[in-house]
Amino acid sequence: MMCSRVVFKCFKTFERLADRITGAAGPFFVAFAVILIGLGTVCFFDVIMPSLMFPLISGPICLLIALNLWMHYFYVITVPPGFADDPPTDFAKDNAQNSIFWASKKSPRHRELTGVRWSNEIVITRAAVTKSNKFAAHASSGSEHTTVVYANAASSNTTTTARYHSVSLCSSLTLDAPGINQCVGLHNERHFVMFLIYLVISCASYSVTGFPHVLNALGAGSTYNFDWPYHVPQIAFIMIYILAVVMALAVGIMGSFHLWSIAQGETTVEGQDHEVYRNMAKARNETFVNSYDLGKRRNLEMFFNVGENGYPLYTLFIPLRINPYTDGRSWARREGYEQHHGIRRGEELTDDDEEPEAEA
């Protein structure tokens, strides 16, 4: 109907305007995030660090946490998320991986398949190839557990593969999360999740260990001294402390959601689609089964690319670059499943959000 067409056009106009605004403000958000993280780091090492017990143990641990926080943040805003038209990557011959920032992979016990981890226990299937007449070939690869991927909004007849999604918000490299100014896809989501984890650890540590110092700065501590013996002003320390408490709670919830999605073997977009599929299957007295779900432990291992034929476990604690287990063109599935169980071909949801047609 005419009313729905007008509402839809108004909504799309407002969405495009919001995209331009957030896209233009993106670099300022990054600068603001760098300033806040930097102030938090300075406050911790100037005020809290000298008072910690067992400095020979706590000191290196705190330095390692700070290093992970900064390096993963750097990676997530600089590493491209991956595009549908990127050529297949031969990970073994990638010269960029000779950099000191790249981790060394274990010697494979089984053969590899074009950048995809391969073992006798994992079934690897090629992604189905489809045509998209809406987006150009800049659809970012939906990593096995990615949050947001993006596409250029220019019309084109484009080849895409399964688990690639188009999100108009990222058509101009706008914000995927506050202070990132980057979309998250196959090649940088691991760093995004690691950044969230270490941000929560940092903020929680700051909140717990900094509480006595906040009381002292407010004049309520048992050892209050009018002489504040630190370089950081008291008001700055208190404000950063309040921010750390809020961030520990907010980012903790966000990070938990991402880890839960990873453990379920689905992307954020897929999580929404799978709810629809479950209802479809239930209406037919069937049970929907996600063919990409290999079990929580294996899903986590595949996402972080550790364990058998992956990278060593120390890559979870030392901020080195690593490749994902897949090149985005092949995916691990449950044995015996070539597709999701409980839905029929043609019922799969797509990213098409064209203007709705008026009812006859």
UniProtKB/TrEMBL annotation:
EC number from the UniProt entry: 2.3.1.225
Protein name: Palmitoyltransferase
Compartment(s) of residence: Membrane
GO terms of molecular function: protein-cysteine S-palmitoyltransferase activity
Record field: transmembrane: 21-42, 48-70, 195-215, 235-257
Domain notes: The DHHC domain is required for palmitoyltransferase activity.
Any matching Pfam family: DHHC
Principal location: membrane
GO cellular component, one term: membrane
Coiled coil region boundaries: none
Protein keywords: Acyltransferase, Lipoprotein, Membrane, Palmitate, Transferase, Transmembrane, Transmembrane helix
Record's bilayer topology term: Multi-pass membrane protein
Ranges for domain Palmitoyltransferase DHHC: 179-271
Signal peptide: none
Similarity comment: Belongs to the DHHC palmitoyltransferase family.
